[in-house]
Design a protein that fits this description.
This protein is α/β, with parallel strands linked by helices. Helices cover 35% and strands 14% of the residues. The two termini are 14 Å apart.
Length: 454
Amino acid sequence: MTFEQLDLSDEVLDALYDMNFEECTPIQEQSIPYILQGRDLIAVAQTGTGKTAAYLLPIISRLYTDGAPTDAINCIVMAPTRELAQQIDRQMEGMAYYLPVSSIAVYGGTDGPTFARQQNSMRAGADVVIATPGRLLAHMQMGSIDLSRVSFFVLDEADRMLDMGFYDDIMQIVRCLPKERQTLMFSATMPPKIKKLAEEILNDPAEVRIAVSRPADGIDQSAYICHERQKTPILLDLLHKDGGAKRVIIFASSKLKVKDLTRQLRQAHLNVAQIHSDLDQKERDEVMLGFRAGRIDILVATDIVARGIDIDDITMVINYDVPYEAEDYVHRIGRTARAGSQGRAITMVSTMDQTRFGQIEKFLGKPVRKESIDPLYGEAPEYHPDRHMDSHHGHSANRRGKGAGPGKGKPRNTKPSERRDKPTDNTEKKRHKKPFRRDNKKDRAKGDKTGAKS
């Protein structure tokens, strides 16, 4: 199912388009309709399945379409750790980019000014507060937060919060919330203590359970920790080894990157074709027919084929970019080692993608083998996924102004989070119209049977 088939606002769809998201993950497909209907929800899904977007997207959309008050805190999202709160806030920033919806991440620390900044933002009425339980309680006790108009309450990684001893804190917070609210619980597991908590705070909830996908045992997984500029030389070296690559799929994060990469591989005299959402269904079918028949050795693709392709003899999958979700990683590399065969999956991890790849390794439950880079290509960066989490995002406790508006003249594949601090002319808030908007919805539905995030 694509996001356009859900009843999300056009502005939310615009932001998803900018982030190259088209197709829902299973947790999103099953959860979003319930949340849009106003149902309480308990969802069981692992980290990496897209659960954060499963609740943020419908909440952001409803805050806008339902006319939520602009001078109040409308949503509380509880997270067990500072790192998760920051991560949720960054996703919120991108998904709400075209809407006058603000957020703030509230977490502990010894920095006095940080606490004061959090106080000021919440008193001004940030729409969405993403908080760790202890710090939220501290603000409640200081009188710096008004929960009287909260309409959404979300517990993310609820089982982990209970494992960390936050049950009493959660219940204390719940007692201060309005009785008329929508409550959403997301948990990786469903032990008795989670069931008990659900009974106490949820009202006739819908229930969603997502089975965890795992890579096939026959896949040899490895990764190159590299700088962005080193990716193409490493890729060419891989493709020219052992007499040339055959039956290879290369995944890139956007169709613009697919086009550029295909051009470079053709210049290197490789037999390559590309597939992405700019091709119509007939063109895609022709490319896939040539690849299946062996007339094409290398296929460069966006995630548009990750879930739909069904070819048993793929020898190697290369992730030129780290996918956004761990489940997407599993689907990508699952194109090789099918029907009991063996295959290789290689991922190129740039400095900016280290945090994301670290989350994928946590999802897999084990580290992926790291390959050394030929000194000819220069020195490789060290692998520190936790260190790079916040190095390029700045302070997460800044309240965004309402209706910042899009950065004008930016290329379409630029992520909204990269444009946060760009100056905009707020006197003329014109939202970009994307070429695929609602007027082409039916045509896209017909032509995107194998669609994914492209």
